[in-house]
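Bumping my old thread because nobody answered last time. Still need a sequence for this structure:
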């Protein structure tokens, strides 16, 4: 039995690639957003604003990235759970259960997350997905 484990986490170089892809997608569509790329522990590595999102978007993007990792799923799944009637979930673990947080995976392992805020829920999620796909496992 092992007493420790080795976990793979996103590096600054990996975060740069994720951020560049998310920013490119946002710029291509003329979106103003805040983007957070976090490592496996949920600690932000990069936080950028593209355009002029509302000031609260920065904190929300960070919360989405953290929540993706804390709950081991995209934040859209959390939002769907609440909208589906599980309202009590709103008060759990200081999460940000709003669509726009997507895990970043490499070789089948979650290594970080990207959170985006400033647009409609689906557009936030599209920008986050574009960033996460920069390192995604090949199909």
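Sorry it took so long. Here it is:
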């Amino acid at each position: 039995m092992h007493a420790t484990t080795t976990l793979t986490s996103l590096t600054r170089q990996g975060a740069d690639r994720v951020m560049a892809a998310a920013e490119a997608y946002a710029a291509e569509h003329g979106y103003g957003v805040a983007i957070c790329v976090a490592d496996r522990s949920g600690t932000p590595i990069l936080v950028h604003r593209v355009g002029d999102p509302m000031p609260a978007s920065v904190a929300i993007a960070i919360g989405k990235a953290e929540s993706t990792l804390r709950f081991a799923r995209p934040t859209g799944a959390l939002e769907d759970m609440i909208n589906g009637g599980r309202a009590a979930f709103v008060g759990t673990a200081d999460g940000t259960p709003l669509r726009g947080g997507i895990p970043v995976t490499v070789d089948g392992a979650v290594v970080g997350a990207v959170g985006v805020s400033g647009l409609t829920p689906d557009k936030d999620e599209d920008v986050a997905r574009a960033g996460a796909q920069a390192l995604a496992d090949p199909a």
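The chain has one domain: 12-132. Let me know if any region looks off to you.
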